Amino acid sequence: IAATQPSTNWHLKENAREHHTSKFSSEELIVRRGQAFTITFNGTDRPEQNLIFIAETGPKPSKATKTLATFDISSTVSKEGWSAVLQSTSSNSVSISISSPQNAVIGRYRLSVQSGSSSPASLGTFVLLFNPWSSGDDVFMPSKAECEEYVLEEFGIIFAGNKNHISSFGWNFGQFQGDVLDICLSIMDRSLYYRQDPVTDVSHRHDPRYLGRVLSAMVNANDDQGVVLGNWSGKYEGGKNPSSWTGSGEILQSWKKSGFKPVKYGQCWVFAAVLTTVLRCLGIPTRTITNFSSAHDADGNLRVDEFYDADGNHLERGADSVWNFHVWNESWFTRNDLGPSYSGWQVLDATPQEQSGGIYQCGPASRYAVKEGEVELDYDVPFVFAEVNADCMYWNYDSATGKKTLIFSKSTEIGDSISTKAVGRDDRVDVTSDYKYEEGSAKERDVFKRARKKLGLEDKFDPTAPKVEEIEQKPDISGKFKVAGSLEVGKDLNLLLVLENLQSDAKTVNVKMTAWSTLYTRRRINEIWKDSLSVTLAPKEEKQFPIKIKYPQYQQQLTTDKTIQVTALCHVEEGIQVLVKRNITLDNPDIDIQVLGEAKVNKEVVVEVAFTNPIDTEVKDCVLQVEGSDLLQGILQLRIPPLKANQKSSTKFKLIPSEAGLKHLLVNFSCDKFADIKTFKMVKVIN
User: Fold this and answer.
1) Is 326 a catalytic residue?
2) What is the pLDDT at residue 119?
3) What integer pLDDT is reported at residue 49 of this predicted model?
4) Which long-range CB contacts under 8 A does 297-302 form with residues at least 24 apart?
5) Cβ partners under 8 Å of residue 237, min gap 6
6) Which of 222, 256, 278, 656 could tie 352 with a disulfide, CB 3.0–4.6 Å?
7) Active-site residue, from 349, 380, 416, 561
8) What is the mean pLDDT of residues 628-644?
9) What's 7-129's CATH class?
10) Best mean pLDDT range from 41-55, 246-260, 463-477
11) Was domain 144-455 assigned CATH 3.90.260.10?
């Protein structure tokens, strides 16, 4: 071999097209495993003579850990290992088709070539990813449309709000932007697993189960200085309010720029969105899932206990909670450890809720195992099962005596309207039936009993608990809150408390009512309003009591989650208490986006964003934030002058799209009275 360093042509465009990696903007070759790619290099005198290639990855490559492969030119592609097939030769260059095995370790490889007895010459580096288009890969996804959505789509919709009132917002995953791939590779190299034993960690990187679990730990900052620091206090000084982010790129870039210090702050959808970006980037099909009325069962008894005082105030007692919604991930891969019926969608959750194996990580839990109540299977199936199935127990707690009295229990409260974005459309798809059998059906109760039995929770009630009055009596009255009118920030909140006497004799009821602003986790932040009333209900009578909470009453107290919990604790004379509660999520006012003219690649197009101040006071500190993959670089921030009462503002800015196709523009408007009014617009970009 000549002493000169060979120069390599990586055929970036052609290889990227074949490997579905064209959306990466990289000067480095990025290919998928189990599929051939072509390179041409010169600097060899007699090219076809006994060339040996060396592909290696990680700190201490070895054949034993499958992080080092040496292979010579053969006439066919090897089924098991790496192989090289000669494509063509000329006087001083050679074209080779290189194939990696379908279960190769993923990551950045160094490739070199050796001829005869000379020392190896470096050809350069390339990155190898999972291959959902290849039938032999653990992440193989038969549907091309699903591969497009769950690997290649950079825009997502995350569902939020509550089960009575589902809302949604857009998110820019941006997995192909800038140096996101490099950041994803850094995330793997900063995990606790890698720090403790880099050689073993890298050797496991062929396995989506392993990487999914490791990355669920790394996306949260707990234990390992991971990417995002969680904060559910309602106070976000020293960082960004979790509801202000509109994409993962800014978060991942901030983490890298700060020298890998956790980014402040995240809540569940931020963790789920960042994990989606990382896994899609590496080639594992992934989506976000929103579960409404999601249980956080801290003590593992498949029960969520909530406590209320005599005034109907929700008490922060015990570690269990029910969140208005919770967002986690599903990733698609086979479960060779469990068997074929457990393959497919696997639940991963990067939100740090409970430790698993001593660190904050969760999953992969087979969705099929969750549905069947097979809580003994790896990983973390009991926690996910409880999130969608736990029974709710509501208690009256007397702090003076320490006495607990059961008000009522409900087995159909938890796990509602489980939602994800449709494939190829901006719509919601309900996947509740993939997580559990129909609520209230015999099959669903059987699965629940099976799960309790497997966890050693035979009895309905915990025999070790202090003796409490746990016999459920039948209530004499029923109650509910109805919404009367719109649920909008800036408008008065009108509700009706509806009470009905279920008995055939008159009942006197004393009602204590409260309204608190909460976070989406139902954690109470500020009291907004309280009132009480006394009423006598004739036999079988129903009465309605209007409740008005004026905007000035709640405006200062509202959190950026825009959630209010109203409760009415009804003390029935000579009867048992009845608890009526409702969680309300208010909507922000609308914001409107118009694209003025046709959007063409590399041509300026003007976008107009309009907002009308709906309240009768001035709003100030107005900021508009805009982002969208392939529509603009990074994030555009525009300051907008204050808006007087009912005044309309219109802001124009220019985009220069960089790629054709259906793209999404995300807009976030904030001011002193309204936080994070989000909307998105699909933009069709033509060549």
Assistant:
1) yes
2) 87
3) 65
4) 297/383, 297/386, 297/387, 297/390, 298/354, 300/382, 300/383, 300/386, 300/455, 301/455, 301/457, 301/462, 302/382, 302/385, 302/386, 302/389, 302/390, 302/391, 302/448, 302/451, 302/452, 302/455, 302/457
5) none
6) 222
7) 349
8) 95
9) mainly beta
10) 246-260
11) yes
Helix residue ranges, H only, 138-179: 144-147
Domain boundaries, the chain: 7-129, 144-455, 474-585, 591-685
Location of structure tokens 């890998």: 260
**Backbone phi and psi for residue 570, each to the nearest 5 degrees, phi listed first:** -105, 115
Annotation marks residue 349 as catalytic: yes
d(CA 332, CA 151): 10
Share of the chain above pLDDT 70, in %: 96
- Output the pLDDT for position 466: 46
Q: Mean per-residue pLDDT for 637-655?
A: 95
Active-site hit among 138, 326, 380, 664:
326
Which residues line the annotated binding site for Ca(2+)?
389, 391, 439, 444
Q: Among residues 19, 206, 207, 268, which one is catalytic? A: 268
- Output phi, psi for 257, to 5 deg: -65, -30
- Asked whether the beta carbons of 374 and 381 are under 8 A apart, the reply is yes
Give residue for tokens 């996306």: 219
Q: Is the alpha carbon torsion for 373, 374, 375, 380 positive or negative?
A: negative
* 7-129 and 591-685 in the same fold: yes
Does residue 19 carry a catalytic annotation?
no
Q: What is the Rg, in whole angstroms, of the alpha carbon atoms belonging to the chain? A: 29
What is this structure's pTM?
0.94
CA 258 – CA 11 distance, rounded (Å): 35
Tell which phi-psi region holds residue 159, choosing left (phi > 0), alpha (psi between -120 and 50) or beta.
Answer: beta
Is the pLDDT score of 45 beyond 60? Answer: no
Domain spanning 474-585 has what CATH number?
A: 2.60.40.10
Q: Which residues are annotated as a binding site?
A: 389, 391, 439, 444
